[in-house]
């Protein structure tokens, strides 16, 4: 299998990162917290092994918001772009906001989650499975 390599960054360009591995567990999350964090109907996120994620520039330009005692979200403190989130109970994983990736992504979303709390003005279409809450294969 050939190695994947992705480049991405924030809107203003101060934060840049690289992913040198696959993106797993890509989902569309429709929960109210993701809607507020993204300013949109849903968030599109994927997991990356922490060993395959690195900042190329601007890591010191990030602001952190801890939404609870387990998860922290990282944003550019200049343009506000949400970049990643990290969980203390999953230290080997980085959750990347896929909209910040500049490269063509070969992996594809697997499901819509928290559709039970989706925005009332949103209509989900397509063939991906939809789950009212969090869904995990584990």
Report on this structure.
It is a single chain. The protein has 138 residues and is mainly β. It has a single domain, classed as Metal Binding Protein, Guanine Nucleotide Exchange Factor, Chain A (Beta Complex), CATH 2.170.150.70. 5% of the residues lie in helices and 37% in strands. It is built from 1 helix and 10 strands. The strands form 2 sheets. A 7-stranded mixed β-sheet has the order 6-7-8-9-4-3-10. Strands 1-2-5 form a 3-stranded antiparallel β-sheet, with no helix packed on it. The chain is globular. The two termini are 25 Å apart.
User: Low-confidence segments, ≥5 residues, pLDDT <50?
Assistant: none
Shape descriptor reads: globular
Going across the major beta sheet, what is the strand order? 6-7-8-9-4-3-10
Number of strands: 10
The helicity comes to under 10%
Along the chain, the helix and strand elements come as EEEHEEEEEEE
Which structural class best describes the helix and strand composition? mainly beta
Q: Could you tell me how far the N terminus lies from the C terminus, measured between alpha carbons in angstroms? A: 25 Å
Radius of gyration: 15 Å
**Approximate strand percentage:** 35-45%
The biggest beta sheet reads:
7 strands, mixed
The second-level CATH architecture is Beta Complex
CATH topology: Metal Binding Protein, Guanine Nucleotide Exchange Factor, Chain A
Overall average residue pLDDT? 92
Report the top-level CATH class: Mainly Beta
């Amino acid at each position: 299998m050939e190695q994947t390599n992705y480049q991405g960054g924030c809107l203003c360009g101060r934060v840049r990162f690289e992913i040198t591995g696959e993106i797993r567990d890509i989902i569309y999350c429709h929960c109210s917290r993701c809607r507020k964090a993204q300013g949109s109907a849903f968030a599109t996120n994927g997991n990356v092994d922490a060993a395959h994620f690195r900042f190329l520039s601007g890591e010191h330009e990030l602001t952190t918001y801890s939404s609870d005692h387990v998860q922290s979200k990282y944003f550019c403190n200049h343009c506000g772009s949400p970049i990643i989130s990290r969980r203390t109970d999953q230290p080997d994983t980085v959750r990347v906001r896929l909209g910040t990736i500049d490269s063509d992504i070969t992996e594809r979303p697997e499901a819509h989650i928290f559709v039970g709390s989706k925005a009332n003005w949103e209509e989900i279409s397509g063939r991906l499975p939809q789950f009212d809450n969090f869904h995990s294969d584990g």
